[in-house]
Amino acid sequence: MSDMPEVLLVPVDGSKNASAAAAYAARMAEKLGVPVQLLFAFPETPMDMFGWPKETDRAEKLQYYSPGGFEKLRDETAGAAFESAREAMGDSSVSVEEKIITGEAAAAILDHSGSVKGGMIVMGRRGLSRVEEILMGSTTQRVLHHAKCPVLVVH
């Protein structure tokens, strides 16, 4: 890997922390002359997200098990997260690509970053308390500890 990143990988989820990371990455990318790749992680199947449907599940939830229903949910959710990130990035001249990755968030980010030459991950810190982070962990913590590329956490 070179000394400087060749692309900034920015996981987004629509949160204010992810938006702050996207804004920071846009400024950094402009100065470095590198592109930004916005990443949205989404479960691979409805069962990964919701588990097996139960008789007590409401129609709103069951619609995501139908053909096309889960893809629609993924696309709408990703679209909102990408829009929030782009708003935070403002009128940046940097090249931005949007990419949906599948799987559990930390694993999907780590897998994707491992396949990108010269990548650097720029991500927001999740808003958990110290006790919650110790008990539950966080996507940011897992990425930070297992990434094979540089990781910048925006707080």
From TrEMBL:
<dbReference type="InterPro" id="IPR006016">
    <property type="entry name" value="UspA"/>
</dbReference>
<dbReference type="InterPro" id="IPR006015">
    <property type="entry name" value="Universal_stress_UspA"/>
</dbReference>
<dbReference type="Pfam" id="PF00582">
    <property type="entry name" value="Usp"/>
</dbReference>
<dbReference type="InterPro" id="IPR014729">
    <property type="entry name" value="Rossmann-like_a/b/a_fold"/>
</dbReference>
<feature type="domain" description="UspA">
    <location>
        <begin position="7"/>
        <end position="155"/>
    </location>
</feature>
<protein>
    <submittedName>
        <fullName>Universal stress protein UspA</fullName>
    </submittedName>
</protein>
<comment type="similarity">
    <text>Belongs to the universal stress protein A family.</text>
</comment>
